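Researcher: Sequence recovery benchmark, item below. Answer with residues only.
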């Protein structure tokens, strides 16, 4: 039995609600035929799927990043505003499909208002310019000064959209990205773009595309660090853009060993440059599994739809999204909570369809396993993160990584937080087949105890149309005074609430 001690006086930090953010890109069925589906009987008068909007409200989505992703690096926002009958379709050079431009800035902001979340706009730093980015800020945020603010008013929004969060670029370090930059070019472009954007609205908060590469980040932060509020990093662990070969449960548990690596590296650099009090990390694209889109970001391009477009439908295979995804995601969120002093935002990629936590079809939606993890964390888990420690060495289990290497992974992953006077403990049991007992020692803490659990019958359990195997349940465990023992089911995600 593992013993953990919690002292409510030892506070790591207060977790931002934006740690449970999401992402939406013009890719496959995320926007068109997904959240935006005019003419569908389930859509409202603005064309948004009411069932998806309600599902997003339930998990209290705090922020959505849009419109990309790789899509944004050749997207020009001015094509997507104004009367829809006047908008012209454009060819999306990132995903090699036509975009009808019927979902643009005003539609995105309207969607965010329906959900009750903050809009987070990522700008085109591939084929775009600093002026185009600053014009976008004007369109969204100035009351009336300037032609773009006037254009917004003429388009039906007399009040500013008041978009607070903006990102300069997406993965512009990558050879796959339209308009990729060298580290020197990037630092210069971000500096000039940030300067112009903040002259339009000094109150916006700015991020810029980064990674764990030292040279890239040094150039960026030395040139533009004084103008930034965030630094953006991305990561997918089960990488399969070309071949849809999802990792099994054991390999996914091996991936949990590295969920905090990127944060630790970027934290160290920010600290060394004395920027850690000014700039926070936005982990604004993350998921266990990367998107499947063969023959696009490759030297040899697909010629026919069968080579590069229809294979994207494999992202809709709900059997891929099992308890492995739920357990991994909970471990990631635990790690971000433990680093809440430096990580202020994280965006699950994406929110709907592709690898999202919500799957939509013409007649309804399916809530995948990861959806219930977000429901658990947003509705039950506290926001004042506490230090939690164990006098015992963590138990480890043998797992086989996706590349065939034999390794080990910790069986348990715990994180504690206060929710007002209550104490909440996120407790993940990664073992595929065995229960584990934990004892929580909490001097001075007493009250009723409830145990909330996300689980399925086995590690490969998943939800689909007409099939519900993964659920969120709650059990009353009575009351406690200072100490509590809890049994955790195998391959389960849990939150214990005391008080």
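Model:
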């Amino acid at each position: 039995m593992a013993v953990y001690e919690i002292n409510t006086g030892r506070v790591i930090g207060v977790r931002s609600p934006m740690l449970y953010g999401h992402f939406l890109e013009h890719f496959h069925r995320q926007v068109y035929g997904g959240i935006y589906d005019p003419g569908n009987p389930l859509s409202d008068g603005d064309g948004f799927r009411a069932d998806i909007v309600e599902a997003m409200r339930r998990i209290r989505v705090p922020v959505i990043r849009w419109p990309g992703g790789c899509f944004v690096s050749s997207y020009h926002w001015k094509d997507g505003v104004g009367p829809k009958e006047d908008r012209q379709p454009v060819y999306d050079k990132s995903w090699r499909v036509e975009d009808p431009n019927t979902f643009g800035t005003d539609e995105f902001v309207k969607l965010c208002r329906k959900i009750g979340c903050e809009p987070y706009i990522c700008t085109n730093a591939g084929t775009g310019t600093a002026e185009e980015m600053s014009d976008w800020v004007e369109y969204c945020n100035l009351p009336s000064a300037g032609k773009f603010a006037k254009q917004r008013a003429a388009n039906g929004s007399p009040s500013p959209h008041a978009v607070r969060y903006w990102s300069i670029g997406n993965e512009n370090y990558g050879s796959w990205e339209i308009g990729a930059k060298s580290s020197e070019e990037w630092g210069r472009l971000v500096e000039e773009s940030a300067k112009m954007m903040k002259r339009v609205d000094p109150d916006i908060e700015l991020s810029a595309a980064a990674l764990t590469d030292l040279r890239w980040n040094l150039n960026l932060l030395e040139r533009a660090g004084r103008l930034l509020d965030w630094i953006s990093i991305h990561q997918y662990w089960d990488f399969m853009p070309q071949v849809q070969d999802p990792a099994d449960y054991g390999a996914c548990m091996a991936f949990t060993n590295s969920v905090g690596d990127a944060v630790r590296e970027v934290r160290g650099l920010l600290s060394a440059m004395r920027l850690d009090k000014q700039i926070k990390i936005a982990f604004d694209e993350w998921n266990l599994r990367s998107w499947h889109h063969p023959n696009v970001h490759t030297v040899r391009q697909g010629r026919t739809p069968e080579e590069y477009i229809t294979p994207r439908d494999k992202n809709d295979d709900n059997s891929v999204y099992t308890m492995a995804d739920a357990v991994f995601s909970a471990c990631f969120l635990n790690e971000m909570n433990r680093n809440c002093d430096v990580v202020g935002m994280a965006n699950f990629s994406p929110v709907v369809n592709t690898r999202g936590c919500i799957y939509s079809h013409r007649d309804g939606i399916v809530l995948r396993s990861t959806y219930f993890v977000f429901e658990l964390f947003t509705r039950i888990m506290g926001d004042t993160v506490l230090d939690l420690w164990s006098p015992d060495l963590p138990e480890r289990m043998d797992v086989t990584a996706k590349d065939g290497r034999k390794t080990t992974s910790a069986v348990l992953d715990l994180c504690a937080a206060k929710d007002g006077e209550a104490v909440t403990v996120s407790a993940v049991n990664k073992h595929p087949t065995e229960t584990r007992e934990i004892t929580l020692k909490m001097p001075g803490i007493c009250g009723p105890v409830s145990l909330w659990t996300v689980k399925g019958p086995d590690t490969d359990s998943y939800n689909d149309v007409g099939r519900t195997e993964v659920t969120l349940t709650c059990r009353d465990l009575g009351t406690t005074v200072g100490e509590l023992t809890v049994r955790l089911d195998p391959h389960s995600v849990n939150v214990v609430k005391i008080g």
